[in-house]
Amino acid sequence: MTAPRLPNLFKVPELKEKILFTLLCLVVYRVGAHIATPGVNVQALADFLRNQGQGTLFSLYDLFAGGSFGRATVFALGIMPYISASIVFQLAAPVFPIVEKFQREEEGRRKLTQWTRYLTVVLCLFQAYGYALFTEQIPGAVAGPGFFFRLTTVLTLTTGGVFVMWLGEQITARGIGNGASLLIFFSIVERIWPETIRTIDALQAHSLTFPTLLVVLLIMTLVVAGTVAVTVAARRIPIQIPRKVMGRGRIREGQKTFIPLRLNTANVMPIIFAQSLIIVPGTIAAFSGNQTLKHLAEYFSVTSPVYLVSSAILIIFFAYFYTSIIFNPVDLAENLKKQGGFIPGVKPGTATADYIDDVLSRITFPGAIFLTIVAMLPIVVSNILNMPFGFGGTALLIVVGVALDTVQQVQQHLLLRHYDGFMKEGRVKFRGRRQYM
Predict the structure, then answer these.
(1) Which CATH number fits domain 207-391: 3.40.50.10470, 3.40.50.10320, 3.30.365.10, 1.10.3370.10?
(2) Which phi and psi (to 5°) does residue 251 adopt?
(3) Which of 118, 237, 354, 432 is the most buried (most CB within 10 A)?
(4) Helix (H), strand (E), coil (C) string for 250-308
(5) Confidence band (pLDDT; 50, 70, 90) for 163?
């Protein structure tokens, strides 16, 4: 299926409304991401994070918040509390049968959505209070620390976090694509312009040579191309649906289809989990003041071989772990059995589940290796060539994945509109004559 041409997007009224509504929500989100929280010295906070916050949990959080965390804006918490709440219930399904049961029912899914919202509010309250305590520890960041500052910060950031959650849900319901993913996507893309200016300044100051920049751009292009290829890559398992007697002697023709098992089923989550764990020592050391901890944290700095090796091991581990959480071969095999479908040469039921699980385990390993390369290569290249900017693997996978998903949804809208127009016309040509339906 070819990519949709831009003029066609606005010829469909429904699609035009969805695109414009999505853009309006994104504009509101980016405006709120530049409104500062009362009582915070933004410059002092930015200087602290630039000097001591690199390689900590705060720098990772600031990436997903589009810089709002470092600017102490009303949207400093971003969409992450909502995503964290969603992940909690997703991971809880294999542990708590009631959650797994709710995921299979329409009414249960509505309850889980409501519970996710409640948990998001709770996470916003705790994170906002932690943010208030964090800013009070930075010299010159807060003019009047104390109870009223903490109360104001908690109310402001919690309200902002809940509003961002609402924006994401509105984009999902009335716009195009997954709202939470699009908010993170534009938060990351927004950094392209500042990084471009930094690169131009480095070229003018001769701290970066033009041949070096070309090499990095070539590597970035290859990484993006590889990311796109692996993101859409899938192992197709053939499925045979037998013929069925429909009544009055009619027999429905048997169908041949397939189950696509993605090479990178876990998407970007293994990298996020791995980075979140491995930068915890650096985060604790940065704010503890203990020299022993700071010395230990040096082994887990971004330039350290220990960091690279540990990250690679954790990424591979979480790739298998998260895939096993979100994909259940037993349920898939049972659904196939109920529909009368089967994999040629494989018995229905347990044998089918074992076969799918074996295939999934084998294709997860190259997917995990790819995730490791995407996560590590930008760091290695930036360190070797001393680049003034970085192109992290996490951000790259999110941008490519969300872009592909959005394009696919736009194509589905255009295809659906095409079929609607065909059905509404009410007539087709058959053997040179016009036949009316």
Answers:
(1) 1.10.3370.10
(2) -120, 125
(3) 237
(4) EEECCEEEEEEEECCCCCCHHHHHHHHHHCHHHHHHHHHCCHHHHHHHHHHCCCCHHHH
(5) very high
